[in-house]
Write a structure and sequence with these properties.
Radius of gyration: 22 Å
Largest sheet: 7 strands, mixed
Shape: globular
Number of helices: 19
Structural class: alpha/beta
Number of strands: 19
Helix content: 25-40%
Length: about 500
């Protein structure tokens, strides 16, 4: 059998990996080639990404994948959103890029919003105002380092930077650019009007690239260094969530289906050919980001299994290491939970003491205080499922859609109890899979760009052939509406 080997570089904000996809014309066999840590480095209260080390790890992944007899056809990079690199006129990195968790934007928040209100910014860009957005970060950089206007030649978002190191080509891909807060939501190009208003040079950016493009092959110097043959470098779905959404195996029509990209964070949304920038969408916290085909993902970024993972970490530090299965089995024993948390409440966004934070939240909201491990885990998972329902109902109201099915993808679907509770509490069928959605979507974007697949039907068939898909039917839940009303009340 003849295979096409494609490499997906999938970089998250805590770890990265190089994944190998073997395509036989009907399915993709995914395997992990190389995994590595990606932690921001603190220097005098500043947080930086060690991007050159990340590039070295990518090179190691390429070498590992090249050791068999199957040649590497192509490679593409996807990463988290909003962060970026400054390059000078020689194409050199000016300094290590800052992490979106860096606190410098807070110092310039008031000055930024003097120029443009949050509501106007949302209507112009479709992106929810947030200090982590690229537009806020660049504004803060220019306020503290005005000399950047003289020395910066190009700004490349994180995946675009690694694509440049691989290929020598500088581009700004649509899906990752759409997270920046710098695009006009209608034209889907960088907004000259917006940039002039806050004095960001528009010539730092290139015309937006949509729908994938082959940028040539791996630099000759890299081929020689790594002892590999020519490899096509593809600008695919460069934002990890856009890649994950490309790997959704829609059973029903896109119009009646919501997706949940589930992991440390949960992104709940729908695909759309048109953006939604109404006042109701702004107040609901919805944002408009790009899809690989140039359309929109209307979604809400909500806390996912972060709280659960932090709880496990706290217990592990105390010498109580419990497996995911053990905790799920324990949580299954709780059938009469009467307590909920707001997963997006500010205390839950920070490290540590998660058990105490959950108990304090329940106490302050006059709910039963969970004291056992099984109850604490049940509170988290039921609260996540309730928050998914809340977001889906907001999207239904704002987009005038009827959502009949939910497609869950990503590592979070390995928590089967969360999938089942999502079906139960939303009263909708949940289709779970694939787990490795970002990497598979990255490979799919390469297959599309290379002309090896094209129709949506073929993509869905490919996903079903490649990954295990599981269906969760909603179970009858006693006093469901009373429970949901209780959860809704704690959001106020």
């Amino acid at each position: 059998m003849t295979y096409k080997k494609l490499l997906a570089v999938d970089l998250g904000a805590s770890s990265g990996r190089v994944m190998q996809g073997l395509f036989d014309g009907k399915k993709v066999e995914l395997s992990e080639v190389h995994r590595f840590n990606n932690n921001p480095i603190s220097v005098e209260d500043n947080l930086y990404w060690d991007v050159l080390n990340l590039f070295q790890q990518i090179k190691k992944g390429i070498v590992k994948s090249s050791r068999d007899r199957i040649p590497i056809e192509s490679i593409a990079v996807d990463t988290w959103g909003v962060d970026y690199c400054y390059l000078d006129k020689d194409g050199d990195l000016i300094f290590n890029p800052r992490s979106y968790r860096d606190q410098r934007t807070k110092r310039y928040e008031n000055d930024f919003y003097k120029e443009l209100s949050k509501e106007d910014l949302f209507k112009k860009t479709g992106v929810q105002p947030n200090l982590i957005n690229s537009i806020n970060q660049i504004h803060a950089d220019l306020a503290s380092k005005p000399y950047l206007r003289k020395i910066v030649e190009k700004v490349l978002f994180m995946p675009d930077f690694f694509t440049y190191l691989l290929s020598g080509q500088m581009i700004n891909e649509y899906t990752i650019s759409s997270t920046s807060g710098l695009l006009d939501v209608s034209s889907r190009q960088f907004s000259k009007q917006l940039m002039e208003k806050i004095s960001i040079p528009i010539d730092w950016f290139s015309n937006i690239l949509k729908g994938g493009k082959t940028l040539g092959t791996l630099r000759t110097e890299l081929c020689n260094e790594l002892n590999v043959n020519e490899i096509k470098v593809v600008a695919g779905g460069s934002h990890d969530t856009a890649s994950a959404v490309l790997a959704v195996p829609y059973i029903k029509s896109i119009q009646e289906t919501a997706f949940i990209s589930s992991g440390t964070w949960s992104l709940v949304g729908v695909e759309s050919t048109n953006p939604v920038v109404t006042n109701d969408a702004f107040l609901a916290g919805l944002t408009n980001e790009g899809t690989f085909d140039g359309n929109y993902r209307i979604l809400k970024n909500t806390t996912g299994l972060w709280i659960y993972n932090e709880l496990r970490r706290d217990w592990s530090i105390k010498g109580e290491s419990l497996s995911h299965k053990t905790l799920a089995d324990l949580a299954e024993e709780i059938e009469d939970n009467k307590s909920y948390i707001n997963p997006n409440a500010e205390p839950f966004s920070k490290l540590g003491n998660m058990e105490e934070k959950i108990q304090n939240f329940c106490m302050k909201t006059n709910q039963e205080i969970p004291k056992t491990k099984r109850h604490l885990v049940r509170v988290i998972l039921e609260s996540l499922a309730m928050s998914y329902r809340n977001t889906i109902e907001q999207i239904e109201d704002i987009t005038n859609r009827q959502i009949n099915q939910i497609q869950m993808v990503g590592g979070g679907i390995q928590n089967e109890l969360l999938c089942q509770l999502t079906a139960d509490f939303t009263s909708r069928e949940v289709i779970a899979g694939p787990i490795e959605a970002s990497s598979l979507g990255n490979v799919i974007s390469q297959l599309i760009t290379l002309g090896l697949i094209n129709r949506r039907e073929d993509i869905v068939t490919l996903i079903k052939n490649s990954e295990k898909i599981k269906t969760y039917k909603p179970r009858k839940t006693f006093c469901l509406e009373d429970k949901y009303n209780q959860f809704s009340n704690i959001l106020i």
